[in-house]
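Reproducibility note. Readers wishing to regenerate the assembly model reported in the main text can use the exact inputs given here. Chain order matters: entities are listed in the order in which they were concatenated for prediction.
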Amino acid sequence: MAKGDQNSRGALGAKQLRAAERKEAAMLLALTIPAIIVVALIIIIPVGWLFSLSFLDETGQFSLANYQKMIEYKSYLRVFRTTFNVSFLTTFLCILIGYPLAYFLSQMPRKYVGLFMLTVLLPFWTSLLVRTYAWLVMLQRNGLINNFAIDLGIWDTPIKLAHNLNGTLIGMVHIMLPFLVLPLYAAMQRIDRNTLQAAANLGATPIQTFWQVFVPLSLPGVVAGSLIVFVLCLGFYVTPAVLGGGKVIMVSMQITAILEDQFNWGAASALGVVLLVATFAVLALASRFLKLDSVMFGRH
Amino acid sequence: MVSDRPASLSISVTELTKSYGNFYALNAVSIDVKAGEFLTLLGPSGSGKTTLLMAIAGFNRPDSGQICFGDSDVTLMPPHQRGVGMVFQNYALFPHMSVFENVAFPLKLRKIATQEKNQKVMDALNTVQLSDFANRRIDQLSGGQRQRVALARAFVFGPTILLMDEPLSALDKKLREEMQIELKQLHRKLGVTTVYVTHDQREALTMSDRIAVINDGEVKQIGTPREIYNRPANSFVASFIGESSFIPLARDAKGGLVYNGVTIADMPSGQSAKAWSLVIRPERLSMVAAKAKIQSSKLYFKGIITELVYQGETALMMMETGDGETLIARMNTRSGDDIDSLAEGQNITLSIDKKDIIIIPGGAT
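Running the prediction on these inputs yields the following C-alpha cells for the assembly.
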C-alpha cells in the first residue's frame, strides 16, 4: 500500500515537472520571437522573393530560361571560375600572412597583445570603401608604391599593381586578414602551453614542437578562419570592382551589371541563387570532413 | 618487464635563486637528491616548489645558482636536451594523438626503430595497465586513465630522472590513494630518481623517501617522513605537517626551558633564538585517570574540555589549560578508552611522554 502511495505521488510530481518544463520552453520561444521576426524580414522573405523571381521570365511566366542561359553562355562559367579562383587565392594568401601574425600575437606577453591587436583591428573598423580607395592611391601607376620603388631604384618602370588581379588580391587580402587572424589567434590562445612544454620535455626541439604539436593544434583555427574568409570572398563586390579595373569580374559584379544594363531581375536573381547554393555547398563539404561545430564555436 | 633499467642520476641544486620583480620564488635553495631516491617537494601554493621543479626541468632559467644531474652541469641546458621525464599537473597530453601516439612521441623523436618502439610503448602501457586503450583518443579517457598515459609517456624513453607536478591533484580521493601506492610501486620497479611536487602532506608522508618542506622560496626542512613529522625543525614545518598545539616556554636562570614551573629541557645548544615553544602532536596526548600516580617521565596538563568532536575512529578534543593555553588532543575511540564518559566543560588531565615533546625556536605561526 505504501508503495502504491509513493507511485501515485511520484506520478503527480512528474506531471507537474513536465508542465513546468513546457512553460520554460514556451518562455524561451517567446524570447527568441523578435530575432525570428528580424531574420524572417531581412533574410528569408527577400531571399525567397529573389528565388521565385529567378524562375520567372519577362512576361511573368514560370520558366527555367534564366538558368539555361547560365549553362549556354560561357561567360557565366568564366565569372564563377574567377570568383572561386580569387576567393581561393585570397584565402591562401591570408593563411600565409595571417598564420605568422597570429602566432606572433599568441606568443607575446598579454599586456602588449591589445596594442598589436589594435593594428589588426583598426583597419577593420575603417570603412571598406575608404580602405579600398586608399589602396588604389597606393597601387596605381603613379601611386605611392611605384614612385617610392622607382625613387629607390628597386624597379625602373611602374609595375601594374592596380586595375588587375594583383590589385584585387592585395586589397582583398588586406580586408579579409582580420577574419582569419581573429579566430586563428583565439584557437592559438586555447592551446595548452603545458603541451608545448611537455613536447620539449620529451625531447622535441623548438622547431619539432612547432610542427608536431603547435601547428596540428592550431588547425581548427586555420579551418575556421579560412572558411569565413572564403565564404565572404565569394560574395565580395566593392574591392574587386574598384581595384580590379573591370578585368576581374566576380559574380556579385556580374549581378550588378545585369541589373544596371538589362534591368533583368530574373537573370540577376538566378545568379544570386546559384552563388548562394555554391556557398552552401562549400560549407556542407567542409562540415563533411570537419566538425564545423567545434571549429566555429570552440566546442570539443 | 622493463628490460633496460634506466640508470638513475642524482640531482644537485646549489644556491638556486629565481625572482620575479621583488618577489623571490626561490631564495638560495640547495637540495641534493640521491640517485634512485623519491624526494617530495612539499609546501603551500606559492611556496616556490613548482618553480623549483620547473627549473630542474629547464622551463625557467634561474637568476643564479647551479643545477647538476650526476656530474654534469645542466643549469643552462634547454629542456629538450635534459632527458628528464615529467608528469604535468593537467597531464598535458597531446589531444591530436591517440594514446599510443602520445606514448610513442618521445621514442619517435629519438628515431627508435618501429619494432622496438612498438614494443616499448606496449610495455609502458602494460605497466600502467592501459594496453587495451592504445588506440583510444585522449578525450575518450577518464581522468585516472589520462594520468596513467602521462606517466607512461614520461618514463617510456627511460629517463634518468622523473619529475611530477601534483600529478594526482585532479583525481578523486579514492583513486588518488590507489595511485599513490601504484606510483610508489612503479618507482621501486623503475628505480628512477623522482622529484614529486605536492601540497598534500599525507601524500608526501605516504610516498616519499625524503621530504623537502618548502615555504617562501626556502627549504624549511629536509628529511625522512618520520623525521619531518616527529622532529619538525621550526614552527612552519610543525604547523604545516600534522596538527600541533603550540605552547610558549619560559626560561629559568640557567637558560633551561620551563613550562608551568617545571624545567623540561636544557637550553638547546648552538641556537640563538630568544623565544622557544613546545609543540605537542594531538595523538601523543593521553588521558590520565584521576587517581593515577604522577610519573617523572611525563608532562601533565590540567584543564577544561572546551570542545569534543566524535569523528569515527578518533575523537578530537580541545582543552583549555589553567594558564589559558589551548591544547588539541586526538583520542582513540576504542572501547577501552573512556571517550563516551567525557563531556564539554568537564575537568580533565592529559599527559605526554617527555620523549614525545618537540621544542622549536620561535612562537606559533
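We highlight two features of this model. Chain B touches chain A through 28 residues (CB under 8 Å). The radius of gyration of chain B is 25 Å.
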